[in-house]
Amino acid sequence: MTEEETKKVKIGKPSGFRDFFPEEYAKVDFVLGTMRRISREFGYVEYQTPAVELRKLYELKSGDELVGETFKITSRSGQKLVLIPELTPTLTRMLAERQQYYTKPIRWFCIPRCYRDETLQRGRVKEFWQYNIDILGMDEIYADAEIITILAKIIAECGLSKKQFVVLINDRSFMQQFMESIGVTDYLSVFRVFDRKGKLLQESIFKKIKSKFPEEQASDIALKIRQNITSLNTIYKLIPQTKVIEEIIDNISFFIESSFKDALKELTMDKDQIDILFSLSEIKDTPKKFLKKVKELAKLENINDLLKNLEELAKLLDNFGITDYVLYDGSLARGLDYYTGIVFEAWSREGVLPRAIAGGGRYADLVAMLGGQPLTGTGFGFGETVLMELMDEFKVKYPQQEICDVYIAPIKLENLSIITKLSDQLRAKGLKTIFNPFDWKLRRHFENAEKRNVEWMIIVGNKDLANDAVTLRNIITGDQEVVPLKKIVSILVKRIKK
Description:
The chain is of the alpha+beta class. Helix content is 44%, strand content 18%. It folds into three domains: 22-184 and 285-393, BirA Bifunctional Protein, domain 2 (2-Layer Sandwich), CATH 3.30.930.10; 185-268, no CATH class; 406-497, 3-Layer(aba) Sandwich (Rossmann fold).
């Protein structure tokens, strides 16, 4: 390749990774800033982690599936590493090492960049920010209520309404005891069936239509039906309207039920057990109505004891004022085996995206395996990508980017030393200040300041300095006044803070 040809080569960014120009990063910064602000309002403190971990840690804590999606590195010394794909293993390692130094309950959060080498789709990229928050060392249900409230508040304060998102909640301890009460002992296998309910429907639809369409199209149709299960009246805007598809849509309840029950039959249950578990998986309602329906479904002597955690949680969520943002969902199980109590996921209300906004739950212990003392906790993980996709979908307006507070415009000044000192004094008071020391006309300074969303401009000419004064102009209103040089800093501090 010649030198001339080398100069013309264009190199793009890696697939699945994103550039953030300032105006785009300002949106990310708003979301991450909201996460930090609300975490701190509840008394949580921020920690940080390495960008890499030993591969062995993820093999031990996360299993082969997640390890298969990691970016793997071998250091010069031969250590097998991964770029961190999630935070839980790292948090576990840190707490196993030093948990005894911290007063319980421990309230921590972290927002590192994480990496997963997985298939790209809407709401899924290979590099993302992952907000993790946990409260550790508190057994009481209050901890679960606090964590769920933080999740709901972050999403709401980023601009989504109670009509646009919902936090789905269930209790794994209730589900386990419920199953044992009806004679089902292999509850972990049943949890996995519950966790795959939507995918089971999708697979059932695919089998029905795969001979009628090319494989890729059939897969896409099955996915779209699953994603839009709550709005099938408009499904033909997304998929072709054929006889076989009309048959599926008209009989969607049958496909939901049969796909779920067929999976349970493989676990060698009797018909009554399968029927009651399917009925439980279909209950999704407000906390009060959910509890009533479950009690009517299962006439068990100990049903009140089984539901006591969900009963208590409902009261606490009501006290926090977020009941309108939540539903109890009998199908929610979350597939990770370490969850032992309350579990939850945030979703768009109408299934706008096929991925959860966030998810988490209660775990009995994560650190003893790595040599620490047993430590209960509850928390969740929350990538920014799905939330921001929804914010765009619902046309949420981000706050205006605040580049600076004050713009200083020198007009044909012979000596810039006084204005340079003034800009330094403004910054010392915490005011973001731009000083362009160029021999521009005033109009050009105005245009430059307006593009940066600046409200206050200090205009300084030789005549102003001769009178130990400057001209202060509000770019938004057009009002301006002459202010003594020695008072300009205190005046701006008061006006901008106000």
